[in-house]
Amino acid sequence: MQNSMGARASVWFMLHWMVTCSAVSMGGKKSKPEVEPPLLDKEWQAVPWNAKAEYLQSVSCFEPFKPRNDEKNEDQRVRILLHGPTGHGRSSFINTVETVLRSKTTDRALVDSCGGRSFTKKYTTYKITKEEDGTFYPFVFNDIMGLEKDEGVCEEDIKLAMMGHVKDGYTFSPHSTLSRDDPYYNTNPSLNDKVHVLVCVVCADKVHLLDEDVMKKMRKVRLDASDMGIPQMAILTKIDEACPEVDADLRNVYKSKYVKKQNWDPKPLLVMIWLRGLRSMQNSMGARASVWFMLHWMVTCSAVSMGGFFSKPEVEPPSPPLLDKEWRPVPWNAKGEYLQFVRGFEPFQPHNDERNEDQHIRILLLGPVCHGKSSFINSVNSILQDRVTGRTLAVASGTTFTTKYTTYKITKGARGTFYPFVFNDIMGLEKNEGVREDDIKLAMMGHVKDGYTFNPHSTLPTDDPHYNTNPSLSDKVHVLVCVVSADKINLMDDDAVKRMRTVRLAASDMGIPQMAILTNIDVACPEVKANLRNVYKSKYVKEKMELLSESLGIPLNCIFPVKNYHSEIAPNDDLEMLILMALKQMLNQGEDFVNDCKCT
User: Which of 37, 137, 145, 409 is deepest in the core (most CB within 10 A)?
Assistant: First the structure.
C-alpha cells in the first residue's frame, strides 16, 4: 500500500493539512486570511430598478404582429412553452406573472412544492385576464409534464407541442407518444397553435443534482426547437435562497459573485426569478458545480478550525423566537378595506349554467378531525355578522362531529339574502373511521347533495337519493382548502397526510385551486398568544407553515395562518384581519376557477 501512488498522495495531503492547521493555530501568517467581499462594486448587468411602470406598460400595450397567411384569421398571440425537470418552478413562474399583471396573488397553475413526481399531467394553456376590460393579454403560457428519468414527459410529445399538434387538455403518458388518430391530435395547426418561445426552467439549488438522462432530454428538446427556428431562453429560479446577500436585498442579484458564478445552497423557500442565457447555465452544470461546492465546503471548514487545532467552538446563544420584521407584511389597519371587498364581492355569472341560478363560490374545507374546519366557518360568520356566532357545531376532542355534507350560507343584510359564497364542511379524515376519498371526489364534482350522511365503509352509490346526477357549476367545488392545526401538525398520521395528498391530486386533475389554513397558531406559539401581530415574525409558525407545505405539497404563498374565535365573546380586529386575508384569497381563486369554466 505504501508503494501505491494513491496512498502516498493521501499521506502527502494529510501532512500538508496538518502543517497548514498548525500554522493557523500558532498565529502564523496564514492565521488571518483575507476574506473576499461577496459583492461586486457595481452590477455586472445593469437593471433599471425604478422602471417597473415602464416595463409594465410595455407588457400591457404589447400587440404581436398579425401575419397575413394565418388562414384561421384569429387574433395572434405569442405562445410560451415552459419545460424543465419536475419541481423546478414552471407553474410558480406562471402564477408569479399573473400575480404581477393582475395585482393580486393567484395560483391557477397548480403547484406541488414537494417535488418528486410531476404534478402537471395535462397540456394546459394559461391566458391572463386584463383587469380593466376582461379581455386577455396577447400571450399565453403552456405548462407541460416535467422531465423525469423514467416517468416524465416524452421528448416526442414536447416536439409535437412545439409544432402545434397537441390540443389543450391532452393527458401526457410517460410511456407513449400522442398518436395521429387521437382526438387531442391537431392535424392542421395554425401559427397560433405553434410554440413561439421555448423557456427552460431550472432551480438554482438543483442544477448540480440533475440526472444525466434528464440533461440529455433537455438538450434534445433544445436541438428540436433550434431546427424549428424557435428562440430559447432559460429561467434560473430561487436565487434568493442560494445567496444570503440576495436574500437580504434582491437588488444585489447582479452584484453577487455567488450568483454570478451560480453558486447555490440546497434550501429553497421562495420563488425569485433570474434570467440567464441557456448556454452559460449548461456550462456550469455537472463537474464545475460539484467542484465549486466541495471547495466552498473546504473553505468553510478551514474557517471553523482557525481558532486552533484543539480549540473549543464558541457556543452560540439561543436564537430569539421572533424575527426582526414580518416576513409576510400584513396590512393590520386595513380591516375595513378587506371587509368591504368581501361584502361587495360578486362572482361572474357564466352563460353556460343551464339552471341560470345565482352563481356562488363553493369552498370545501378538508382536514383531520378537530383541526378547526367548523370553527373557521363560525369565525367567518362572526366577522360578517359583526358578532361572535356558533352556527356550525365544533368539537374540541374525540372523533369527528361533522357526519353530514352540509352547505353553510351566510346571511347578508336583509333577511333572505346571502353572501355569494358558501362553505361545505365534510366528515374529518381519520385513520379508519373518517370520510372516504371517493366521497370527497364526488363532492368536488358536485354529485353529493346536501344532507348526505357519510359512511366510512362505503361510497355514495349512483342510485342513492343524495346522488346528484346532473350537477350545475354552482354544485361543484371551486376552491379546496386544507385545514391543519399548528399544534397538531407534528402528530398527523401518515395515512391522513397520504389521503390529503390524494385528494389534492384529484382536485388538480379537475383544475380546482387549493389552499391551506394553519389554525390554532396562538396555542402553538407563546409569542403569538401574547400578541397576534407576531404571527409573521414567529420563527416557530414559519417552520410549521414550511412543514405543512412540504407535507401536502401546497406552496407557501397559498398557506395562511389564522386564529379562530374560540373563547372570545367580543370581536378582535387582529384575529379578523388574518381570517379576511385568507377569505379574500379563497374568493379570488374561486372566481378565477369559475371564469375558466365559463371559457371552456
Answer: 145
Q: For residues 474, 478, 484 and 486, what is the CA-based torsion angle, rounded to 10 degrees?
A: -120
* 274 Cβ neighbours under 8 A, 6+ residues apart: 204, 235, 236, 237, 239, 253, 259
The H-or-E segment that residue 195 falls in is none
CA neighbor of 172 nearest in space, from 199, 142, 216, 215: 142
Q: What is the pTM of this model?
A: 0.61
Instruction: Give the dihedral sign, CA 179/182/187/191.
Output: negative
- Report whether pLDDT(276) > 70: no
**CATH T-level topology, domain 358-599:** Rossmann fold (3.40.50)
d(CA 452, CA 466) in angstroms, rounded, equals 6
- The H or E element spanning position 484 is strand 479-485
C-alpha 28/C-alpha 303 separation (Å) is 15
CA distance 84 to 199: 8
* CB distance 326 to 536 below 8 Å: yes
The answer on pLDDT for 437 being more than 80 is yes
Q: CA distances (Å), 371 to each of 121, 376, 397, 452, in order?
A: 31, 10, 9, 22
Per-residue pLDDT tens digits for 517-561: 999 999 999 999 999 999 999 999 999 999 999 889 899 999 999
Name the one residue in this structure whose C-alpha cell is 373557521.
376
Say how far apart CA 10 and CA 84 lie, in whole Å. Answer: 40
Question: DSSP letter string over 34-89?
Answer: PPPPSB-SS-SS---TT-HHHHHHHHHT------TT-TT-PPP-EEEEEE-BTTSS
- AA identity, residue 541: V
Residue 94 has phi, psi (to 5 degrees) of -60, -45
- Confidence band for 24, pLDDT divided at 50, 70 and 90: very low
Strand order in the sheet with 273-276: 124-129, 136-143, 78-83, 197-203, 232-237, 273-276
Residue 200, classed as helix, strand or coil, is: strand
Q: What are the φ and ψ backbone dihedral angles of 139, each rounded to 5 degrees?
A: -145, 150
pLDDT tens-digit map of 447-506: 999 889 888 888 898 999 999 999 999 999 999 999 999 998 888 888 888 888 989 999
**Residue 364's pLDDT band (cuts 50, 70, 90):** very high
Query: What's the chain's average pLDDT?
Result: 77
Q: Give residue 103's pLDDT band: very low, low, confident or very high (50, 70, 90).
A: confident
Domain spans in the chain, listed from the N-terminal domain onward: 52-305, 358-599
d(Cα 188, Cα 285) in Å, to the nearest integer?
A: 39
The owner of cell 502527502 is 12
Helix ranges restricted to H, 330-483:
335-343, 373-385, 437-444
